[in-house]
């Protein structure tokens, strides 16, 4: 054969290879999935057997406790067995729902969603098993179930929850990817997902933490497993892309980083990743979003706002406390609130009752969070407000309720906060919110209701300080009317709203699972 014919032959083979390569890749993934499915079958049977033993033990304990009138058992029964919003329970479906949440012990709003979702699933499908894929090895099941009740006031049926402990969580840590972090963490989530599926292939797979690549990987490996993603915050968004050109410094931690050669590289990289992220997202069966802001960025048609609201009086007397409930992480912008509070205290406040700032949030162990809160304490001292500022880490639910019941103002400082559950908690408890003019707090939560405002928006430290002064200057009737509207507004995001939305989408996943696997209970 002449060299010219060989060249033409190679050129002609290119489109054929382009067509065959995706097919062969998919075939190999399906084969790999079959092997993983078979390899984890023994563990699956062992988990089901262990859960059945725990169910029997729990039923026996309930029988023994019936004559004691134990309130906790009533809470468990109400959570696990009562019909959901009039929808009959599905007692026949006995499958395993896998919840992919590698940091389930972090204690933030994302974890609250996880446990509320599991509680709703247990209530509607009492015979199902909820398997949580986690990298938190330091605690056992009883400890984490007890912590969920203490931190979030959510009671779970311990016997139908199981934990699948992962050993490759380091692959999704930002510290493992000092360069091209978004892509690195996303690829790392594939390793973590492989770790999960190697241990157990569920009947339904749900990511509740933001690892879209892991969900798409599941769908490619196991086409018979319905998948879902609860999206708190898109991994990449148009707001992030726009922040590269921002010169005000108010649009998050990436503001103004698009200049120069390095900025152009970041810009091209982010645009490439955005396309890849969109392609991955199209492989997910059901997408749930927690706010208008997230919904608009995901560009999907499933949205369910979430919050779990405490019930306290809006009319009770309040202390002059500004309350910020948020994890101690850089993007929450606690520093902005410290500077605004300092400006308010030293330049604007004429209130005879000295104002206090209380910041409550979780701190993830062995992470930069610990250094971050240390730096915040130093900043408070440098600003001359340390004696008026209180930092509370990893507070139990009772402590959060205590401050929600006596604070006057609830504040949020994060740019493009996806939702901000602390803001809804504040509304429900009667606080006047002062939130960043962006994201979910601006679009969904602190919006006019019943013909009046429920709070204030701000962006700069001067605007925050002025908003604090406005609240301090309101007369009793005006502030009571605003608190009352705020509480009524918060009911839009109640626990029942989330539960109904979650069950509706879970029903679709169960329907898909039954359709793909007819004749099987699991």
Automatic annotation (TrEMBL):
Originating organism: Cyphellophora attinorum
Family: Belongs to the glycosyltransferase group 1 family. Glycosyltransferase 4 subfamily.
EC number(s) given by UniProt: 2.4.1.131
Region feature (Disordered): 58-90
Coiled-coil intervals: none
GO cellular component: endoplasmic reticulum membrane
One MF annotation (Gene Ontology) recorded for this entry: GDP-Man:Man(3)GlcNAc(2)-PP-Dol alpha-1,2-mannosyltransferase activity
InterPro entries hit by this protein: ALG11, ALG11_N, Glyco_trans_1
Role according to the record: GDP-Man:Man(3)GlcNAc(2)-PP-Dol alpha-1,2-mannosyltransferase that operates in the biosynthetic pathway of dolichol-linked oligosaccharides, the glycan precursors employed in protein asparagine (N)-glycosylation. The assembly of dolichol-linked oligosaccharides begins on the cytosolic side of the endoplasmic reticulum membrane and finishes in its lumen. The sequential addition of sugars to dolichol pyrophosphate produces dolichol-linked oligosaccharides containing fourteen sugars, including two GlcNAcs, nine mannoses and three glucoses.
Domain ALG11 mannosyltransferase N-terminal, chain residue ranges per copy: 95-299
Record's compositionally biased regions (Basic and acidic residues): 58-67
Cellular location(s): Endoplasmic reticulum membrane
Name of the featured protein: GDP-Man:Man(3)GlcNAc(2)-PP-Dol alpha-1,2-mannosyltransferase
UniProt topology in membrane: Single-pass membrane protein
């Amino acid at each position: 054969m002449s060299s010219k014919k060989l060249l033409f032959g190679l050129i002609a083979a290119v489109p054929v290879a382009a067509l065959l390569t995706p097919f062969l890749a998919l075939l190999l993934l399906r084969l790999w999935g079959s092997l993983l499915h078979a390899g984890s079958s023994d563990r699956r049977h062992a988990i089901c057997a262990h859960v059945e033993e725990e169910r029997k033990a729990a039923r026996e304990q309930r029988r023994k406790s019936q004559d004691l009138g134990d309130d906790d058992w009533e809470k468990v029964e109400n959570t696990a067995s009562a019909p959901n919003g009039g929808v009959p329970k599905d007692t026949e479906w006995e499958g395993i729902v896998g919840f992919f949440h590698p940091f389930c012990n972090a204690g933030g709003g994302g974890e609250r969603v996880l446990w509320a979702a599991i509680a709703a699933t247990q209530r509607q499908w009492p015979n199902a098993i909820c398997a949580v894929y986690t990298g938190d090895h330091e605690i056992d099941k009883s400890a984490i179930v007890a912590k969920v009740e203490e931190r979030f006031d959510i009671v779970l049926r311990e016997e139908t929850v199981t934990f699948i402990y992962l050993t490759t969580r380091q692959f999704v840590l930002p510290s493992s990817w000092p360069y091209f972090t978004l892509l690195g963490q996303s690829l790392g989530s594939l390793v973590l997902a492989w770790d999960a599926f190697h241990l157990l292939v569920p009947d339904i797979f749900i990511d509740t933490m933001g690892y879209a690549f892991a969900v798409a990987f599941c769908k490619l490996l196991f086409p018979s497993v319905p998948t879902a993603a609860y999206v708190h915050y898109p991994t990449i968004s148009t707001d992030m892309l726009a922040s590269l050109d921002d010169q005000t410094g108010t649009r998050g931690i990436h503001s103004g980083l698009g200049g120069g050669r390095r900025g152009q590289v970041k810009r091209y990289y982010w645009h490439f990743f955005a396309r890849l992220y969109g392609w991955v997202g199209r492989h997910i069966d059901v997408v749930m979003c927690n706010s208008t802001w997230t919904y608009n960025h995901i560009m999907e048609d499933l949205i369910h706002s979430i919050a779990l609201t405490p019930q306290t009086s809006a009319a009770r007397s309040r202390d002059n406390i500004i309350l910020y409930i948020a994890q101690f992480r850089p993007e929450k912008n606690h520093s902005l609130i410290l500077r605004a509070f300092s400006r308010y205290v030293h330049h604007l406040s004429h209130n005879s009752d000295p104002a206090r700032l209380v910041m409550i949030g979780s701190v993830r162990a062995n992470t930069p969070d610990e250094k971050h809160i240390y730096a915040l304490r130093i900043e408070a001292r440098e600003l001359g407000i340390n004696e008026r500022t209180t930092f509370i880490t990893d507070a139990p639910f009772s402590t959060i309720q205590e401050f929600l019941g006596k604070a006057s103002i609830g504040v949020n400082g994060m740019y493009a906060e996806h939702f901000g559950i602390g803001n809804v908690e504040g509304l429900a408890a009667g606080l006047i919110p002062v939130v960043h003019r962006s994201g979910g707090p601006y679009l969904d939560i602190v919006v006019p209701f019943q013909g009046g405002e429920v709070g204030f928006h701000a962006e700069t430290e001067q605007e925050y300080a002025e908003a604090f002064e406005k609240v301090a200057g309101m007369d009793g009737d005006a502030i009571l009317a605003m608190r009352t509207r705020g509480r009524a507004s918060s009911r839009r995001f109640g626990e029942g709203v989330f539960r109904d939305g979650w069950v509706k989408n879970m029903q679709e996943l169960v329907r898909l699972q039954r359709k793909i696997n007819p004749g099987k209970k699991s």
